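B., you asked whether I could sanity-check this one before it goes into the benchmark set. Here's the sequence:
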Amino acid sequence: MSGITSLEPPKRQSLDRAAADSLRRAILSGLIAPGARLTEAKLAEQFMLSRGTVRAALHRLVAEGLVIQRPYSGWDVLTLTVQDAWELSTLRSSLEALAGRLVAQSIDDAGRAIVMSAYDHLAQAAEEGGEVDLVEADMALHQAIVGLSGHRRLREQYGLIANQLRLYIASSNMLAKTTEAVRDRHHSLIAPLLAGDADAAEAAFRAHAVRSGEEIIAHLERAAIPG
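And here's what the prediction gave me:
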């Protein structure tokens, strides 16, 4: 729970949703570390909310896959394991490769404008924003492309893992070393899609997901080695 004292009380809206939003940003920024123990009493004091409201917020994050509820012992922030990284990277590669192919096959000027607007937002976040802003802009670009696919069930399945992917993307961006590298990787990713090259777009999205997965897995394996 170290560092939680810098969290701001949630602003006006559904109080449990606002508390969940604040906690989510803290988790994705690294302010609350993976594996950290969360206690209802301390969070309630920090947010100046009832424990019941905090509990509802934590249940929201459990449903998103960012927090794990331990029976009789409390709540823990998700720690990505090698298995988690492998599952997310392989699932992501399949979903996004399909989205890339579908969008490239049918993209028009309006679709290109949506993709470029999302990319420009990512490039601006890479230059000016903090870690959370970059993660959100990164995720928004991928969601925009999935949204353009015209495939309702693909969008639904992607939505189920969206917040776990935010944590995954935060780890991937950290390992990219520089924000410029994140920007450049995505420029190369969308180029074949904008050109309407379905085969190249599918391959680019699959390779993007596989590379980030391999980087995260290698990092987790190194961290697990004593000394």
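One thing to flag: Residues 76 and 145 are 32 Å apart (CA to CA). Otherwise nothing jumped out at me.
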